[in-house]
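Protein in question quoted for reference:
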Amino acid sequence: MAIEVSYLFIITAGTFTTWSTWNTNYDLIAEGFRSGHLYIPVPPPPELLARPNPFDWSNSNLWFLDASLYKGHYYLYWAPLPALLLLAVKTVLRIKEVVGDQYVVFASYTLILIAGALVIARMARRLFPDLPAGMTLAATAALAFTTPTTFMLATPGIYQAAIAAAQAFLLLGLVFGFDAVWAASEAPPPRWRLLAAGSCWAAAIACRVSAVLPASVFVLLTAFFSSTFSSTSPAIPGRLRWRRAAASACWLGGPVALTLAGLAVYNKLRFDSWTEVGVKYQLNVFPFVTSRAYLPLNIFSYLFRPVGTSCRFPFVSALYDIGARGFLHGTVFPPGYSTHEPEAGLFVTSPWTWLVLAALFFAGRGCVRWWRSPDRTIPLDQRRRTEIWCVASFAALTLLMPVVFLAAFSTTMRYLADFSTGAALLAVWGGWSMLGAVRGRWSRRAVVALLVSLAVATVLIGLLLGVEGYDGMFKGHNHELYESLRRRLSFCR
């Protein structure tokens, strides 16, 4: 509840009552559905339609920015599930007013907080039962304020809403997947848990199509590890085991397959193509360009790009137009590369995620030991099976979502949210594994102190970044409070 209050404080710029609106795009999609069509109820200007090439940037003063123009109508390329849920809420509650996208962002991060806390609690209770008091709280707080959560809440538009909603359903599916893997025994895993997990991952895809990458891996991992059995069980024929794994995959993957089919039909009805989501017809002055030459710069930016610092509150900020000073000395930018968008590296702003390195060490050590063992069978005891599933799932959540944008011409803070939750959870496992590996009272206390320090630093930096957002959230929306905080908290004039 304390974290929720802090989220509310940030998204309302400290007023707790005024929810500033950046976009109403999901509401537009929802109202289009209510009217019985798939385009939004905003007609393109006749003068734009009369131009020989409406997509030329010289016509940008007539555009609905980021909309897709096709056959005389505006469409929005964002996946439809948040709009459908918003339409259901507006219908049930008889809401006639326009509902801004900030409510979708807040609801999504609330769900991320709940689902993430449930995953962490399950890990603590079942995989690390000897944790010192407070470790679950520290891990949950670190997850809640891992960059760019507060930065997204401070600028809650459609771009942030789509990313956060997908992450929320991916995490919620991991809760059911964890239970399915843990409960697996000689009997097949409970079907309702498999169906619930698959439905959540399907919902994530219906919020952000790129979520199909981690969702597909989740389906395969959960089907396999929920169909292996304890080493104390009687021998089970390999054919039966694979048959049960295939059955689990059907329960998990069925909702995902249906969702992909539904999205294909949705695309066909809008753009006469099964695979076109609208990017081809998007009205945007910055076309999405990718190149392998951009890849090392983007990896460095997302992990290590420095923050701006000041002796005045809020002390830290993600900088626009950082240029060469945000990179290693001697870095040469390839043609077309941009540093205009604000960005601050995950390892710089969320010290908790340094524990990913510990996770890599312990996972690598486990793989080496398995390779050197005379019997290279998959560990089948309940705890080990679930632990491997967790590490593999968190790694997939961290690594697969960035595939779509990692070679883009620029970086931006909001894309950190596509992999920061996975990194934070992987760091939880890494930190707790490090704590379990140490022996002796003083060394254990030192590791506990380290984990608490990393969590506290992550929370503090996260809260401070929440003051700014993309457009100076507090300064623009609650100037009086902003200036008051600067006078009281700054340690220089």
